[in-house]
């Protein structure tokens, strides 16, 4: 059976003292400053991108792991920070587009470096180059990690530990903040998440003067040792004593997200080099160098010298005429371009106005159609209501007529029935009388 190490990326102190950056001549203070600077970029950009804290924490851990195997002199810290955040967003199932990551990192870098904030056009060549570099650096990170990017954070242990210790609720927030700050250091590649969680809990308890059980020691329950907790507290105290991290250029590659400023600087340098060629001092030097040759020529006072000067004057006049002719041509071309641009702008404005008018007309037509539909609906409803009223009136009339008809027939039937009853009774009595009258025994 094959076992794959998931969360075993931990280095010793000797290995951290002999990182690739140290072998390339970068001192410990510069490496620490660049690590903090890259983590700050990841944190600020993640907040602007509205990512959860888990994404930013994963990106910072990947950032530290990568620079434990590669040097700051060979891989640009800004590009690696952007690629780590982009990769972490995919690992934590909160993906963002490359365009969003590049634009946000460009804005954050301009703010931190006090540069003019310029719009980064997604259709420009600079943006396409940045996108290619982002994906390329992401492939480098995955290759160095061996595609094993599992990260276990100390945050998930903090709440359980504090609930077990029955600490006050304000201690939880303080320990959580310390855990976030610990990601700017190399604690995530030196100790396990349980040890870091115990260290931030101990530091938070000391800050709020909350006593923790020491007999028996509480850290032994959570598989931690006192030396590791003390080292975590020492590293956090050293982190808070440092000033705000600034970018230090140690990579041979240029700045990652500030193409505009580099372009202006690169364009201004050749112009400054070309200025001395046309400066008055150089012109005077050339004229002085030519003058001795003319004086040294013995025939310069004769007709040849006059002819030479005349030919020079003719050449100068021709050149001035050419320049004077070329200037009006340039002005005419510029005026034509300006006129064309103005006409194109006016045409575009007219088109926009026509589109707006057409949209307004379409909206008005739709509104009129809606009004007509509403009117037709109201009419139909009125007609239906009137028809229902007529039907109810007809039903009432019919019911009244039926009631009258049924009442008259009942009285007649009652009358005729009583008359018939009297008739039958009277006839019956007369028959009986006749029968008894003619009977012999009557």
How would the blueprint of this fold be written?
Layout: H1 13-17, H2 20-23, H3 28-48, H4 53-67, H5 77-91, H6 98-112, H7 125-145, H8 155-165, H9 169-182, H10 193-208, H11 226-241, H12 259-274, H13 280-296, H14 303-438
Please explain how this structure is put together.
With 442 residues, the chain is an all-alpha fold. It is built from 14 helices and no strands. The chain is flat.
Write down the overall mean pLDDT.
77
The termini sit apart by: 136 Å
Write down the oligomeric state: single chain
Q: Which outline best applies?
A: flat
How many β-strands, per DSSP? 0
What's this model, at a glance?
The chain is an all-alpha fold and 442 residues long. 73% of the residues lie in helices and 0% in strands.
What distinguishing features does this structure have?
442 residues; 14 helices; mainly alpha
């Amino acid at each position: 059976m094959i076992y794959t190490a998931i969360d075993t990326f931990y280095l010793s102190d000797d290995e951290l003292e002999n990182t690739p950056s140290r072998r390339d001549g970068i001192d410990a203070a510069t490496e620490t400053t660049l690590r903090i600077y890259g983590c700050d970029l990841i944190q600020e950009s993640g907040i602007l991108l509205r990512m959860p804290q888990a994404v930013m924490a994963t990106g910072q851990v990947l950032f530290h792991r990568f620079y434990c195997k590669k040097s700051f002199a060979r891989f640009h810290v800004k590009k690696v920070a952007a690629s780590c955040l982009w990769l972490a967003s995919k690992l934590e199932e909160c993906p963002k587009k490359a365009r969003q990551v590049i634009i946000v990192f460009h804005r954050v870098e301009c703010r931190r470096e006090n540069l003019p904030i310029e719009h980064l056009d997604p259709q420009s060549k600079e943006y396409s180059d940045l996108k290619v570099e982002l994906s390329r650096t992401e492939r480098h990170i995955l290759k160095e990690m061996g595609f094993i990017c599992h990260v276990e954070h100390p945050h998930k242990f903090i709440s359980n530990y504090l609930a077990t210790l029955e600490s006050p609720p304000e201690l939880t927030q303080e320990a959580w903040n310390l855990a976030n700050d610990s990601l700017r250091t190399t604690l995530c590649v030196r100790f396990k998440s349980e040890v870091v969680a115990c260290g931030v809990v101990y530091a938070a308890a000391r800050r709020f003067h909350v006593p923790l059980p020491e007999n028996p020691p509480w850290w032994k329950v959570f598989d931690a040792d006192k030396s590791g907790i003390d080292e975590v507290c020492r590293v956090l105290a050293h982190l808070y004593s440092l000033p705000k991290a600034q970018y230090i250029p140690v990579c041979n590659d240029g700045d990652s997200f500030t193409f505009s400023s580099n372009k202006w600087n690169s364009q201004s340098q050749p112009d400054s080099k070309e200025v001395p060629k046309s400066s008055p001092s150089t012109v005077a030097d050339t004229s002085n160098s030519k003058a001795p040759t003319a004086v040294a020529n013995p025939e310069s006072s004769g007709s040849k010298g006059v002819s030479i000067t005349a030919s020079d004057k003719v050449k100068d006049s021709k050149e001035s005429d050419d320049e004077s002719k070329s200037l009006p041509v340039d002005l005419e071309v510029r005026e034509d371009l300006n006129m064309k641009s103005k006409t194109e702008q006016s045409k575009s404005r007219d088109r926009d106005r026509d589109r707006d008018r057409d949209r307004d007309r379409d909206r008005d037509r739709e509104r009129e159609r809606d009004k007509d539909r509403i009117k037709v609906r109201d009419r139909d409803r009125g007609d239906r209501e009137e028809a229902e009223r007529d039907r109810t009136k007809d039903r009432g009339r019919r019911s009244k007529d039926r009631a009258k008809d049924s009442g008259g027939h009942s009285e007649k039937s009652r009358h005729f029935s009583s008359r018939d009853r009297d008739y039958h009774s009277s006839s019956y009595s007369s028959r009986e009388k006749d029968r008894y009258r003619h009977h012999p025994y009557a």
